[in-house]
Amino acid sequence: MGTVAKGCLGAVLGLIAIVIIGVMIASCAGGSKDQGGKSAPSSSSSAKQEQARTYADADINVLIREAKTNAAAANKNYKGKDVKIVGGILENIDSDLSYITIKGTDRNYSLLHVRCSIKSKNKELQDAVLKLQKGQAVTVYGRITDVGDVMGYYLDLDKVETAK
After folding, report:
1. Could you give the CA distance from residue 137 to residue 162 in angstroms, rounded to a whole number?
2. Sign of the torsion angle spanned by Cα atoms 59, 79, 152, 136
3. Cα distances (angstroms) measured from residue 52 to each of 79, 144, 160
4. Which pLDDT value is given to residue 13?
5. Strand, coil or helix: what is 8?
6. Residue 76 in 3-state DSSP?
7. What's the rounded Cα separation, in Å, for the pair 143 and 157?
8. Which residues are CB-neighbours of 115 under 8 A, at least 6 positions away?
9. What pLDDT does 3 receive?
10. Residue 30 has what DSSP assignment?
11. What's the rounded Cα separation, in Å, for the pair 99 and 20?
12. What is the pLDDT along the chain (164 residues), one digit of tens a residue?
């Protein structure tokens, strides 16, 4: 074996040793823990947290009227709040299932609506939306993320059901 071959063999063995040491250090450090040292919550625990939410009842016509009358006050009152919006009519279902929109029944505010974003990982919610039709009366549950005087409300959708 020549000196060049011995040098290459030594370099390869050295590289393998470095990789093995790195793997050992990573496994001792507990790679599945977050920076706070606590295990990350499982998806089932986050689903339980969503189910444990308390939703305040809200009539869609009242919400829309408040946004049109004073969007700043409506934003302060509702942004970040978990709500159950009743009285809505399904206006649009996005073809990619990324959102739906619902409107109220008050013709004075016909341009304003609630845009409900659907999380792409929530297959159960997507399946529920696939069973709906435009024009149906629906009740939506979620957290309001924004309010505007032109478009209305933005909501992260947790649940949708036909109105009873």
Report:
1. 6
2. negative
3. 19, 17, 16
4. 57
5. helix
6. helix
7. 7
8. 99, 100, 101, 151, 152, 153, 154, 155
9. 55
10. T
11. 47
12. 555 555 555 555 554 656 555 444 444 444 443 444 444 444 444 445 555 789 999 999 999 999 999 999 999 999 999 999 999 999 999 999 999 999 999 887 677 899 999 999 999 999 999 999 999 999 999 999 999 888 899 999 999 999 87
Q: Which amino acid is at 133?
A: Q
Joined together, the tokens standing for residue 62 give 């009242």
Give the model's pLDDT for residue 121: 92
**What is the reported pLDDT for 1?**
56
CA distance linking residue 132 with residue 8, whole number of Å:
66
User: Which is nearest to 153 in space by CA: 26, 24, 63?
Assistant: 63
Residue 39 is which amino acid?
S
At residue 95, φ and ψ (nearest 5 deg) are -65, -25
158 vs 51: CA distance, rounded Å: 9
The pTM assigned to this predicted structure is 0.67
Spatial separation of the C-alpha atoms in residues 160 and 164, rounded to whole Å: 12
